[in-house]
Specification:
heterodimer; A: mainly alpha; two-stranded antiparallel ribbon; globular; B: mainly alpha; ABC transporter involved in vitamin B12 uptake, BtuC; two-stranded antiparallel sheet; 13 helices; 4 strands; about 5% strand
Chain lengths: ~300, ~325
C-alpha cells in the first residue's frame, strides 16, 4: 500500500463525494424550502444522463450533451413540479414518499419504453481523456479531476446564489417562513418551481457527468439517490454546507473503506475471510456511519431542526 | 357505496372462492397467485401495525421480510446438504419443518426489530424514514457479500419444507396453510387494536403529549408495536421464501420495502382489511397489466399517484365512501 495509491484513492473518494454533492444539494434545497422528500430525484439524474447520451450520440459533442442534460432535467423537473409535486407540499411525508415512489416507477418504465433495456454509452470527450500528472508525480485521469473541479465550482456558485442574489434571499426566507414571504408579495408557487427545476438541473448534470464513466441505464439513479439521502441525513436536512461535508465524508468512507478494510482485517484474520468480511463491512460502512450520526445527533451534523 | 363490513367479508370470500374455483378448474397457477396475495397481505398487515396504528413510517420493513426468508433459506439449506448450522456450543442442525422455521423467523425478526426500533425511535419524521431505509440497505449489502449463503445469487431449496399432516407440495394445501395464517394474523391484529395496548398506541400516534401526561411512555408503546410488526412481516418472509423455494438479497432491497408499503396504501392505511385488499389488488394488477404490457409499472405508478393525490383511504376508502377509519 503505497502513498501514491492512497492519494489516488482519496481523489477517487473526493470525486465520488463531489458528484454525490450535486445530487444531495438539490435534494436538501427542495427539502429545506418546500419540506418535500423527493424519491424521484434519482429519476432526474437518469433523465440527465439519457439526454446527454442521446444528444452526444446525435451531434458528436459532449458539451452539447451536457447542455441537453441540464435543460432536459430542468424541464422534466419543472413539469413534474407543476403537475404532481405541488399537490404534495401540504401532505404528510408518507404521501410524499409514495407519490414520488410512483414517479420513479413511471419514469423508469417510461425511459425503458423509449430507449430499451440496453445501456447507452457516453464517451469521455477527447480533450478530457487521458491522465494528467499532478505535483508529486501522481498520474490521475484528467476527466475525474475535471469532475472534482466542476463540482467545487457548482458548490461555489450555489453558495454565491444563496448568499448574494435576490433569488437566494427568497430561498432563505422561504426556508424560515413561507407564509410571511408570500404575504410580502413573492410569488411562492413560482419560487418553488424554480427551486425544484434548479435541483433537477443539478441532478441531471451529475447524471451526465457520471454517465461518461459508468454506463447510462434504467435504474442508475436509485443507488445514487439512496446515497444522496444518506448524505443529507448525515449533513442535516436543509443545509447545503452539511450536504457538502456529508458528501465528501460518504465518498471517502465508501472508497477508502472498500480498499483499506480488507487490508486492515488481514492483520487479524486469514486473507480470504478478511477479504469477504472486509468487503461486506465496507459496503455497509456508510450506513453504519449514518446510523451512528443519527443516534448521536438526531438532526444531522449541521441540521437546525429535527 | 358499499359498507366497509360487507367489503371486508367480500374480500375474505374472494380468498376462499377463487382458489376453490381454481381447484375445480385445474388452474394451479391461480392458486399460486392467491398464495402470493395472502403472503403479501400478511407482510402488509405487519407494516400496518407500525404505520397504520403507530404512525411509524418505516421504509425498512424489507429487513424483516428478508430475515424471515433467510431463516427459511439457511435452515433448509443445512437440512438439504446434511451439514450442521453450528457445532458449538451446542450442535444445531438445519430443519425442513415449517413450524420450527416460522418460530425462528419470528424470533430473529423480532430481535432485529427491537434493536432497529430502539435506535431508530431516537429520531422522528423524515429522519426516521431515512434511518429505517439505511438499516434496510445494511442488511441488503450484508447478504450480497455473504458468500456462504449464495451472496448475490441467493439460495435455492429443492423441495418445499414440510408441515405435519400436510403435503405442502400440493399448491392448494400450501395455500390453505397460508390462508389460515392470514386469518389468524387478522384476528390477532383485530384483538390487538381493541386491546388497551392498541388503544394506547393509537393515542400515542395522535397525541403523544397527552399520552405521556396520563403516565404512558409513547416511545415504548411504539417500540413494542415495531417489534410485533417486524415479527409478522418476518413470518410472511418465511412463507414467501417457501412459496418460491428461493431466497435472495432482493428480499432485503428498498424496492421490497416500497412494495410492502404500496400494498398497504392501495388498500387503505390503518384499516384492518386494508393490507388484504391492497395485496389482492396488487397481485391482480401485476397479473393482468403484466399480461397486457411489459411496461405495466407505468400504469401501477399512475394508479398509485392518483390514489395518493385524490383517494385518501385507498381502495376501501373509495369503495365505502369513507376517507378515514371509523370504528
Amino acid at each position: 500500500m503505497s502513498f501514491l495509491l492512497l492519494i489516488e484513492q482519496v481523489l477517487n473518494g473526493l470525486q465520488f463525494g463531489i458528484m454525490l454533492f450535486l445530487m444531495a444539494a438539490g435534494l436538501t434545497l427542495i427539502f429545506g424550502v418546500m419540506g418535500l422528500i423527493n424519491l424521484a430525484h434519482g429519476s432526474l439524474y437518469m433523465i440527465g444522463a439519457f439526454c446527454a447520451a442521446a444528444v452526444a450520440a446525435a451531434t458528436g459533442s459532449f458539451l452539447l450533451g451536457l447542455v441537453a442534460a441540464l435543460a432536459g432535467a430542468a424541464a422534466a423537473g419543472a413539469l413534474v413540479e407543476l403537475v404532481v409535486i405541488r399537490r404534495l407540499y401540504d401532505k404528510d411525508h408518507l404521501d410524499q414518499v409514495l407519490a414520488t415512489f410512483a414517479l420513479i416507477l413511471i419514469f423508469s418504465e417510461g425511459t425503458r419504453w423509449v430507449f430499451g433495456s440496453f445501456p447507452l454509452f457516453l464517451d469521455v470527450p477527447d480533450f478530457l481523456s487521458g491522465p494528467v500528472t499532478l505535483p508529486g508525480g501522481i498520474e490521475y485521469p484528467l476527466y475525474r479531476l475535471t469532475l472534482i473541479v466542476i463540482g467545487l465550482l457548482v458548490a461555489l456558485g450555489l453558495y454565491m446564489l444563496i448568499s448574494r442574489t435576490r433569488l437566494g434571499i427568497q430561498i432563505r426566507a422561504g426556508e424560515n417562513d413561507r407564509e410571511m414571504i408570500a404575504a410580502l408579495g413573492i410569488d411562492i408557487a413560482r419560487l418553488y418551481t424554480i427551486v425544484f427545476a434548479l435541483g433537477a438541473a443539478l441532478a441531471g448534470l451529475a447524471g451526465a457527468l457520471v454517465g461518461a464513466i459508468q454506463s447510462v441505464q434504467v435504474g442508475m439513479g436509485e443507488p445514487v439517490l439512496i446515497l444522496a439521502f444518506v448524505v443529507i441525513v448525515i449533513g442535516g436536512i436543509g443545509s447545503i454546507k452539511g450536504a457538502l461535508v456529508g458528501a465528501v465524508l460518504v465518498g471517502l468512507t465508501d472508497t477508502l473503506g472498500g480498499i483499506f478494510l480488507p487490508e486492515a482485517l488481514k492483520l487479524f484474520l486469514d486473507p480470504s475471510t478478511a477479504t469477504s468480511v472486509g468487503s461486506s463491512l465496507a459496503s455497509m460502512a456508510i450506513y453504519i456511519l449514518m446510523a451512528a450520526v443519527l443516534i448521536l445527533r438526531p438532526a444531522g451534523l449541521f441540521g437546525a431542526r429535527a | 357505496m358499499i359498507r366497509e363490513t360487507y367489503l371486508n367479508a367480500l374480500t375474505l370470500g374472494l380468498f376462499v372462492l377463487i382458489p376453490a374455483w381454481a381447484l375445480f378448474a385445474d388452474e394451479p397457477f391461480t392458486i399460486t397467485l392467491m398464495t402470493r396475495a395472502a403472503i403479501f397481505a400478511i407482510a402488509a398487515i405487519g407494516l400496518n401495525i407500525a404505520l397504520g396504528i403507530g404512525g411509524l413510517v418505516s421504509l425498512g420493513h424489507a429487513v424483516f421480510f428478508g430475515i424471515g426468508g433467510y431463516a427459511m433459506g439457511i435452515l433448509a439449506y443445512h437440512a438439504q446438504t446434511y451439514t450442521a448450522l453450528a457445532e458449538w456450543p451446542v450442535l444445531i442442525d438445519g430443519t425442513k419443518s415449517m413450524p420450527i422455521i416460522w418460530l425462528v423467523a419470528v424470533l430473529v425478526s423480532s430481535l432485529a426489530a427491537l434493536v432497529i426500533g430502539a435506535l431508530s425511535l431516537r429520531t422522528a419524521g423524515v429522519y426516521f424514514i431515512m434511518i429505517t431505509l439505511a438499516f434496510g440497505q445494511m442488511f441488503f449489502f450484508f447478504t450480497i457479500s455473504w458468500a456462504e449463503y449464495g451472496g448475490e445469487d441467493g439460495l435455492s431449496i429443492y423441495v418445499r419444507n414440510g408441515f405435519p399432516g400436510l403435503n405442502t407440495l400440493a399448491p392448494i394445501q400450501f395455500y390453505g396453510l397460508c390462508f389460515v395464517i392470514l386469518c389468524l394474523v387478522l384476528l390477532f391484529t383485530w384483538r390487538l387494536s381493541k386491546s388497551p395496548f392498541g388503544l394506547a398506541l393509537n393515542a400515542a400516534r395522535q397525541a403523544p403529549v397527552r399520552v405521556e401526561t396520563v403516565g404512558l411512555d409513547p416511545t415504548r408503546l411504539k417500540l413494542v408495536a415495531f417489534v410485533i410488526s417486524g415479527a409478522i412481516t418476518g413470518l410472511a418472509g418465511a412463507l414467501f421464501a417457501d412459496l418460491n423455494r428461493f431466497v435472495s438479497p432482493t428480499m432485503f432491497s428498498w424496492q421490497t420495502s416500497g412494495e410492502i408499503m404500496i400494498f398497504l396504501i392501495l388498500g387503505g392505511v390503518g384499516r384492518l382489511y386494508g393490507p388484504v385488499v391492497g395485496a389482492l389488488a396488487f397481485v391482480a394488477l401485476e397479473h393482468w397489466l403484466g399480461g397486457l404490457s411489459d411496461y405495466w409499472h407505468i400504469y401501477l405508478g399512475i394508479l398509485l399517484l392518483l390514489i395518493v393525490l385524490f383517494g385518501r383511504g385507498g381502495l376501501i376508502g373509495l369503495a365505502s365512501g369513507k376517507e378515514a377509519v371509523h370504528d
